Amino acid sequence: MNTDRVEKKILLRAPRKRVWKALTDSAEFEKWFGVKFDAPFKPGASMRGELVGTAVDAEVAKMQKQYAGKPFEMTVETMEPERLFSLRWHPNAIEPGVDYSSEPTTLVEFVLEEAPGGVLLTVTESGFDKIPLARRAKAFTANDNGWSIVVKLIEKYLAQEGHGK
Amino acid sequence: MGTAKTSAAIFAALGDETRLLLVSRLCDGRPMSIARLTSGTDITRQAVTKHLRVLQDAGLVRSRRRGRESVWRLEQRCLADARHYLEIISEQWDDALGRLRKFVEE
After folding, report:
1. A12 contacts in B (CB within 8 Å)?
2. What is the pLDDT averaged over residues B5-15?
3. What is the four-CA torsion angle of A96, B91, A43, A11, rounded to 10 degrees?
């Protein structure tokens, strides 16, 4: 069974140009995604931003508030106008005090296609199999099961000098 | 791994530096031979076998024959967690794309 990638399709009833702008104009991206960047997106650009919360959903914004001000980094890979926007980031990198920079990234691709009544947007995020299992398990350690104990112990262990590599 | 009893067994199994090392090496998900598991360490073959058995009894690892040697891997449950992780990511995308739709359609 697949543990490496997620694929999502959504039909957006809006012009293709509009969707492209919402994805690739960093000021627009901020409004729906909830991360603020100081510079425009460009192919190859390393972007440093911070979580600010989405502007389009009050409830989600409230939930995102606990992470407000948290740095968010990603690298823009490809920008083929109105067709493909891709980037790399560290998935779910929300744990305070953790340096994710040495861990593998996932590849996020937004593909736009013409569809009756709008734009068919396909989003894929892939490369999860390269993310350490312990890190993945961390995403739901709120469920206090045995595995969360394992994860905590391993992290503690790896944090001790000399055990990381 | 839901009950307090199994959690305690896991906790006990991992209350040992060598066993923590073994589990952390298996954490990248690939099955490993004993030789690979202990490469760069001075753990004896006899000791590692004993440690792996403790981990197996706690439900953390399992082994399988591959030719003349045994290969060890993390218990399936841990891989189930990897799939669960994708479900979480998938839900996060549903939310994000719902917001994108609201943003571009209004």
Report:
1. 100-101, 104-105
2. 69
3. -160
Token pair for A100 = 């994710």
Residue A144 has pLDDT above 50, yes or no: no
Domain with CATH 3.30.530.20 in chain A: 5-131
**Chain B: nearest CA to A2, how far in angstroms?**
8
What is the value of ipTM here, to two decimals? 0.76
pLDDT in tens, B31-86: 899 999 999 889 998 999 999 999 998 888 999 988 888 899 887 665 566 667 78
Which two tokens mark B6? 């199994």
pTM of the predicted structure, to 2 decimals: 0.67
Q: For A37, phi and psi rounded to 5 degrees?
A: -120, 145
If you count residue pairs, one on A and one on B, with CB atoms under 8 Å apart, how many are there? Answer: 131
A5-131 under CATH 3.30.530.20, yes or no: yes
